[in-house]
What we know:
CATH class of the largest domain: Alpha Beta
Structural class: alpha+beta
Strand order of the largest sheet: 1-2-6-3-5-4
Strand content: 15-25%
Amino acid sequence: MFTLDRLKSGLPVLTAATEGTASVTVLVFAGAGSRYETKKDTGIGHFLEHMFFKGGKKYRNTKEVSVAIDGIGGDFNAFTGKEYAGYYVKVAADHADLACDVISDMLVNATFPQEEIEKERGVIMEEARMYEDTPMYRAGWDFELLLYGDCALGWDTIGTEEVIRSVSQKDFQKHKDELYTSDNLVVTFGGKIGEKQAMELSNKYFGTIGGAKAKEFAPMQSYGTRKVWLRTKKTEQSHLVLGVPGPSALDKDHFTHKLLSIILGGNMSSRMFLNIREAKGLCYYISTETDSYLDAGCLSTRAGVDQSRLHEAITLILNEYSECREKGITGEELFRAKEFLKGKITLSLEDSEELAHFYGKQQLLYPKVRTIEEYFKEIDKVSEEQVNLLAAKLLKPEEMRLVVIGSEDNEAKLTGLLTA
């Protein structure tokens, strides 16, 4: 269960208390993901995430922030996605006050020193190069650009080198002022903490946050029309992502979508894993997963295969999609997928960080915050017929998109495999 209160400013404070842990996670969500960016400032949200750790008034630099949390054995980090950013500190329950002190000083009192901006440019450039040299990551980013097209939802969250090298102190302050406002944040507590303590800490440390959100992201207009994206590169394996557009997070088929992906390739008893990895020995990793945004989504299968067996792998994945589309799933597969999903959620929510994430993200983005019990009811409601109808709707040959990174240099051949 959870409780939801608000400070005088309107800032939501969500408390997801549990006695099953000795820790507390304080997680502040912001509706400040990369979808809010334009070509001129793409990547500023991710860069700003880095800059918040450069200190405020009390914890004046990265060292003082890290010493404060390391000194009590806590964890702290941040993340920037397409639709939101998050900042968290996870500590033993006795140190919840310190956790709030550190996060609030970072977010409320950030000064963005110019000398730190200059240093951090190099850090982020190296981060970008790391992802460029990791085909598993790069293929996923290329797939987003292929599927969503030349818009903020398709661009890399990390941004472009041009922006990374040019953003200034005033740019960060402007972005913060526009999006880090009381109506666009959620302070979330997960773990061993009660509603009363959570509200006392929130009033003390986050009560000065005000303002009004100053911009919205552009809605998704249409999916990209290009079908194949080939990046010819010297790699040990070919890495591929093969998928289709899918329902959004608010679509009635959202839970059906999740279960379909699990049946196809969500675990070690899935079709992709058993029929391609185990039966054919074709790859080490293969998985099917979904992405669900507020107005768009996708289902995709990714794998790393020997260069000489790339075409075979693509054909086999397409065959699994075709089998599912034409013949549907079984009742047993659906039952196992439901129990798998509920079991994974149950295990993850033993962690106060995951508990805070589960509830806080819903409060920030969605019209309704579901309890775990309500969430499980939605999973259980999905029928075999619903999964089969969605598979027939999504897994059409004309909807397939393919990204490949490897030694392949003939895009026409790849296109031919999709349309064969």
